Amino acid sequence: MDARSQIEAALIDVFALADQPGSPPKLAAAMRHAVFPGGARIRPRLTMAVAAACGLDAAAVAAAAAASIELLHCASLVHDDMPEFDNAATRRGRPSVHRAFGTPLALLAGDALIVLAFQALARGAARVPTRLAALITAIGGAVGVPYGIVAGQAWECEPSPDLAAYQRAKTGALFAAATEAGAAAAGCAAAPWRALGAALGEAYQVADDIGDAISTEAALGKPAGQDAALGRPNAVHVLGLYGAVARLEGLAAEAAASIPDCPGAAELRALIRLESQRLMPKELPAVAA
User: Fold this and answer.
1) Contact of 83 with 103, CB cutoff 8 Å
2) CATH hierarchy code of domain 3-283
3) What does the alpha-carbon distance between residue 203 and residue 117 come to, in Å, rounded to a whole number?
4) Domain boundaries, the chain
5) Is-above-0.85 flag for pTM?
6) pLDDT in tens, the chain (289 residues)
7) How many other C-beta atoms lie within 10 A of the C-beta of residue 62?
């Protein structure tokens, strides 16, 4: 199977835990709504790509790590969309979880997805248990405090949020975990891969900021203009449109240059260049002209 198929198979496999007899049916349905069908699966694909570049020798471990990363990402979207934060009506072009199932089930679904992520990791890494500690360290650190996605969400509650700290935590942390987990899943040191994930995470956030500032809900699959409406940090508001575009391009170059020596370094650089091009919003050329 290709990487995308491996990720989907791992997600489907771990969801069997949520669908067992006795599990609340609406909760399981809300969890599935959050995860399937997926978006671009950028973070788990990055995990698989790094594992492959390092010389993948345990595909099931890498797929479990990738599934864990994606479940955590989906959980963060469920919570981010809730009325207490973005109050977003749509996600991936359809009703957000709290709109489809109600706020109580959305809260519980997000919580359950976080737990399910670590269940997926434990099940998959059981095949090579010596790698589990490194995987939990990398992925767990990307979730909580002081620098994980929960901390990133909390920056939105501060009166004067720090843009760099906000972006590093809310978006960059899980990207850094994705690259570190890919290396750890392949039995390599995780720390040298953090810079790649951090640069890609910030690039993705800047691209998201640009999209929020200049795109439409139809193009994004979620509400546009949310940052301005909610007074949240946004790279376009801080740097201007051209400054944000320049920052995005610089981060893409920084990411490609940060790849450690490994058997698949050239292929990974090419993949990052392609992904960086995809991140640039389609509306940008017309706006920047």
Assistant:
1) yes
2) 1.10.600.10
3) 25
4) 3-283
5) yes
6) 689 999 999 999 999 888 888 889 999 999 999 999 988 899 999 999 999 999 988 899 999 999 999 999 999 999 999 999 989 999 998 999 999 999 999 999 999 999 999 999 999 998 899 999 999 999 999 998 999 999 999 998 888 878 788 888 988 899 999 999 999 999 999 999 999 999 999 898 899 899 899 888 888 888 889 888 887 788 898 899 989 989 999 999 999 999 999 999 999 999 988 888 887 766 654 444 3
7) 33
